[in-house]
Amino acid sequence: MSKPASKTLIGVFVIGAIALAVLAVVVFGSGRFFSEKMPLVMYFEGSVAGLNIGSPVMFRGVKVGIVKDIVLRFDAKDVSFLIPVYVELDPKKFLVIGKFTDEEELDRTLINKGLRATLELQSMVTGQLMVNLDFHPGKPAKIVGFDKRYTEIPTVKSGLEKLLESADDIPLKELFNKLLSAIAGVDKAVNSPKFASSLELVNEGLKDTKRILSKIDNAIDPVIENVKASSGSVREILKKGEDVPAKVGETLLSIQNTLQKAEHALNSIQGIASENSTVVLEVDNTLKEISDTARSLRFLSDYLQRYPESLIWGKKQQKGE
Question: How many CA within 13 A on the CB side of residue 272?
């Protein structure tokens, strides 16, 4: 008959089991083995050099997952290659507001909204790549559908890939040859005798231009002095001319007074010689001449008062004359 199990041994065994359970929770408590990951697949047509297992998956600058596997798919029918890239997204990186019941329906909605995957440069120094998720509305969704186990995210070419493809289309060799040819042509032209003679002609032309400018500069100074002297003379003439109308006016006034006295005298003579018709006729003619002369003197005096410069420059021409 066997002995009953020791209670002490049983207690130690139970305590050990509990300790192992606690240790497992502590070690694996990060949730890595208890949280559900979101596996995705995407297919790239071009090179993925620089993309490695463990490379980050980014969404608008936030790391939301990592690359789990990279394989090469060959299609013997059309002899084409595709590179499936398998990634895992961490659900804890997404704060979901609201609820959704169908995960597949959510994936389709995001893809219809333009969710696409691109290869972007992670570091310019190391050349490492990363997978970038973002929305590209208007870009067609090309679904390969090779691996039905995972949700497929359509891919589009990034700006880097387009740039590299454009660089491949540039005829660098042809451009380089043309550049060498142009450099050789310039070197030949510079070292040719014609170029040297052309430089000499240009140099002589510059010297001639300098001499001409020097002569013009020397000739301008006397001209300026003459203009200054002429302007001074004109100012003196005009200054003197301002006094002329006043003096002329005084002279004309004296002449007019004299004519008036003569007119009075002739009137007296006309009264005395009223019986002699010949004398009366001569006196009348003389009075008319005196009157016309006085009228002309008054007109001349008024004109000089309004246009004193006419003594220097002459009478102004009226429009239509």
Answer: 7
Coil vs helix vs strand at 68: strand
Same structural domain, 153 and 225? no
**Are residues 239 and 160 part of one domain?**
no
Question: Are 155 and 276 in a shared domain?
Answer: no
- The whole-angstrom separation of Cα 142 and Cα 236 is 99
Q: How far does Cα 91 stand from its chain's mean position?
A: 48
Helix 193-272 × helix 277-306 angle, to 10°: 150
Please check whether residue 134 is in contact with residue 60, taking contact to mean a CB–CB distance below 8 angstroms: yes
Task: Out of 95-104, 137-146, 157-166, give the one with best mean pLDDT.
Answer: 137-146
d(CA 177, CA 147): 49
pLDDT in tens, 14-49: 676 676 665 555 444 444 444 578 899 999 988 899
Helices (H), the chain: 7-27, 103-112, 159-169, 172-190, 193-272, 277-306, 310-313
- C-alpha 35/C-alpha 65 separation (Å) is 14
Give the length of the chain: 321
Tokens encoding 225: 């002095």
